[in-house]
Write a structure and sequence with these properties.
Elements (H helix, E strand, L loop, with lengths): L1 H16 L9 H12 L4 H11 L5 H6 L7 H12 L2 H4 L41 E3 L13 H12 L5 H17 L8 E3 L22 H6 L10 H8 L14 H16 L15 H29 L2
Length: 313
């Protein structure tokens, strides 16, 4: 009970002080997923993961964030956690990666998997915009490739005889995308007469609460901070519940369907109304959202660990 009260209190503080927009869970949420996964990796899988992450172009930067004197075990944990943020980090201005939008292009670029020589952001890999409607508006097609198709593709590479350079790239992506598809608003978009192309997974649903939109609100539930704030993620991860028996489900399509159902039954609910807002979320909505977010992050961590233990050869 004390743990739950601390979590709710932390959420209340976030709502009072505000925080900037973030990406799919945000850095704290993604690092919490990685922390939970690390605890469940075999020693051999941990070492294999670290050897691959050393090939990432940001590896030296991650090391610079870790204080001198940190034990090797903790250093490896923190590197693994920070690596989970990399697909969001390359979306930053000045990253050197090309902005390619949220819609997959009709070209080979969309499914290209060539490793770190690929300088596209692939923003459309981060979500599965499964449409639903509450007013009978016709549903558009669900574009591919998306997070679900890419998890399937990357896990095959990790289990193959592909080069370590390619496996390093696919590893950081799959670490990130497993977290993404456990965020309900990364697997749903609401179609209405006033938003026939969808609300962008809640990005267009405005709130009076910080950060001002429904998607950002859910992204930030585990805490605020960037890659350097990995200790904030450690604290958040230590408050997660047990993943439960559902952790054994290895099918990424099931993970997406779970999030899609949660979006409809737990996210787009009062005080969120049928239009684009603005709405004001109350304490009851906030505490329920936090509990769901913590359970989804715990599940994502356990499932990521199972995936890597099984496939990271």
């Amino acid at each position: 009970m004390k743990l739950r009260l601390r979590s709710v209190a932390a959420l209340a503080i976030f709502l009072l002080i505000g925080f900037p927009p973030a990406n799919a869970w945000n850095s704290i949420g993604h690092m919490a997923v990685a922390y939970a996964a690390w605890q469940q990796l075999t020693p051999a899988t941990q070492q294999r993961a670290i050897s691959l992450l050393q090939k990432n172009p940001d590896y030296s930067k991650w090391l610079s964030y870790i204080p001198a004197g940190t034990s090797e075990d903790d250093r490896n944990l923190y590197i693994f956690m920070m690596a989970a943020t990399w697909p969001d980090e390359i979306k930053a201005e000045g990253s050197g990666y090309k902005l390619d939008g949220d819609t997959p292009p009709h070209s080979s670029e969309a499914t290209n998997n060539t490793g770190y020589t690929d300088k596209y952001m692939h923003k459309y890999w981060h979500f599965v915009n499964t449409p639903f409607s509450t007013d009978g508006t016709a549903l558009p097609a669900n574009p591919t490739p998306n997070a679900q198709t890419q998890i399937a593709a990357f896990r095959q590479v990790l289990a193959s005889n592909a080069s370590d350079d390619l496996k390093s790239y696919d590893l950081v992506w799959i670490m990130h995308l497993v977290g993404d598809v456990h965020q309900p608003l990364h697997c749903a978009t609401r179609i209405t007469a006033s938003a026939r192309k969808g609300d962008g997974g809640g990005n267009s649903v405005k709130l009076s609460n910080d950060p001002g939109d429904l998607h950002g609100y859910w992204d930030n539930l585990l805490g605020i901070g960037d890659t350097k704030n990995y200790t904030v993620a450690v604290t958040a991860a230590k408050q997660l519940p047990a993943a439960g028996s559902a952790a054994s489900d290895a099918n990424e399509a099931d993970w997406v369907e779970e999030s899609f159902q949660l979006a409809q039954s737990k996210v787009y609910v009062a005080p969120v109304g049928p239009a684009l807002g603005p709405y004001t979320l109350d304490a009851t909505y906030g505490s329920n959202a936090l509990a769901i977010a913590q359970q989804r992050v715990a599940l994502a961590g356990a499932r990521l660990a199972n995936l890597l233990n099984a496939n990271l050869k």
